[in-house]
Specification:
- By secondary structure, the protein is of the alpha+beta class.
- The protein has a single domain, classed as 2-Layer Sandwich (Alpha-Beta Plaits).
- The chain contains two helices and six strands; from the N terminus they run βαββββαβ.
- The chain has helices at residues 19-34, 82-89; strands at residues 2-10, 38-44, 52-55, 58-61, 70-79, 97-103.
- It has a four-stranded antiparallel β-sheet with strand order 2-5-1-6.
- β3 (52-55) and β4 form a beta hairpin.
- The longest helix is centred in the N-terminal third of the chain and has 16 residues, at 19-34.
- The mean pLDDT is 89.
- Belongs to the YciI family.
- InterPro entries: Dimeric_a/b-barrel, YCII.
- This is YCII-related domain-containing protein.
Amino acid sequence: MAQYAVFMFERVPPEELPAEVMQAHMDMPEKVTALGGRIVAGMAFEDVGTTTAIRGDELTDGPFLETKEVLGGLFIIEARDLDHALALAKLTPIVEGGVEVRPLLDFQVL
């Protein structure tokens, strides 16, 4: 199956997510499997203040873009096609924000 990255954007910091949202994250792999997909990996990012951006030889503190939403984490999922990936990504629990889905190329560098 094809793989997709599901990027989670939130206005609520991870440490302040409601308990029911955290539980929904824990329950998501089972729900995705029940719909015929698979979560390959799921990770949350540290606070945005820990970000270091690299452009050419220049290193700067913080992300490339200023925004009200923060990239909070990502899932790598396997799905039959983009429509299936979008259906699975809609299961992602978000308090105030959204998700983005991007198809991944089969480009292994490790």
